[in-house]
Amino acid sequence: MAGTIQQIADLAGVSRGTVDRALNHRGRIRPDVAEKIQKIADEIGYQSNRSKKAERTDNRSVKIGVVTQLSKSSFMLQVNQGVQDAKRELEERGAALLWKDNVTVDEHEQLQAIEQLVSEGIQGLALMPIECESIRLKINELVEEKKIPVITFNSDIVGTKRICFVGLDNKRSGFTAAGLMGMLTRGSGKILTITGYFTNSVNSLRVEGFIQEAKQSYPELELLGVQSSFDDADEVERIIVSTLDRVPDLKGIFVASAGQAGVRRALDKLNLEKRPYVIVYDITPRNVQALEAGDVDFLIDQEAYVQGNRPPLMLYDLLVKGQEPDQEYIFTDINIKTKYNI
User: Fold this and answer.
1) Which residue in 204, 203, 189, 195 sits closest to 252, CA to CA?
2) What is the dihedral of CA 313, 90, 84, 121, to 10 degrees?
3) Hey, which of 84, 156, 201, 216 has its CA 20 to 30 A from 11?
4) Which residues contact 31 (CB under 8 A, 6 or more apart)?
């Protein structure tokens, strides 16, 4: 969100009145103080009401589209909040954000959502793409033929003309998870890996990174293979219960996708004397509860809010101000959470 007069005053160590006089060139004020105030205002993106009104008048026709997926997933709570705040910010600037929040990971549903936004006149698109040829072709059509810039976020797609990607370096986060599991297990033991959909590039990159680092740095870890849960908590629960029935000495569980609530249900059902070590993704209410209760050891957070919030605002800056992203991959932080710092 854009900065406020109060934030500028706090950062500059002056009163709101001094900030107002400096920014609107009213009354006497020391040049060095005025320069300091203007610099802070620029850094935090402050816009005066007069500037916002002019910008609203100039940008009434600017429309930015957003297409998300898995709308009922708890992970999407933070992504959606980021999109909502971007929508409010764009409305303040006189632009519109048109949002299609899809429930499934279905290419036909996503194509239909994109087509509808295009028919409504969007000039830019922020997209959580599904990894498939039809979406790849659609992105290239938008960019090359319709001159609609596309920014991908959360999930990326290769072989397209999209401008940039905003999200987690998923393979590196897989390295991180393997390193954490290696430390927990002292580098040995049997490890279960659970993904969501094998067609989901986010999950696949996390698993790829986890396996690569585990084999390279912890060769005594025994990886039991990768099982798909379809992002369903019931299926995660079933996989864990079934695996522990066959492998009672299971040392660790790595869940690279949604459905993590099934971990806690499985452990409650089994009532083990000593549970396996567990690593999951994303700050969600249930994951926080599991971490605080000691049912999960590490939670890897990916700044989901930033992923939903930043791309629409970047598209606005591109369309209105001509400001192009300065890099192709804008990675969010890999944040490691425990019950002590959640």
Assistant:
1) 189
2) -90
3) 84
4) none
**Which residues have C-beta within 8 Å of that of residue 193, sequence separation ≥ 6?**
207, 210, 211, 223, 224, 225, 226, 227, 254, 256
What pLDDT does residue 210 have? 98
Span between the terminal Cα atoms of the chain, in Å? 24
Written as one string, the DSSP assignment of 277-304 is: EEEEE---HHHHHHHHHTS-SEEEE--H
Q: Which two tokens stand for residue 269?
A: 């059902």
Tokens 């809010």 identify what position? 305
Kind of pairing between the strands at 329-331 and 298-301: unpaired
For residues 107 and 125, give the distance between their C-alpha atoms in angstroms, rounded to a whole number. Answer: 16
Q: Which residue has the tokens 């006189």?
A: 94
Question: Residue 148: which of 122, 127, 130, 112 has the closest Cα?
Answer: 122
| DSSP bridge partners of 189 | 221
pTM value surpassing 0.90: no
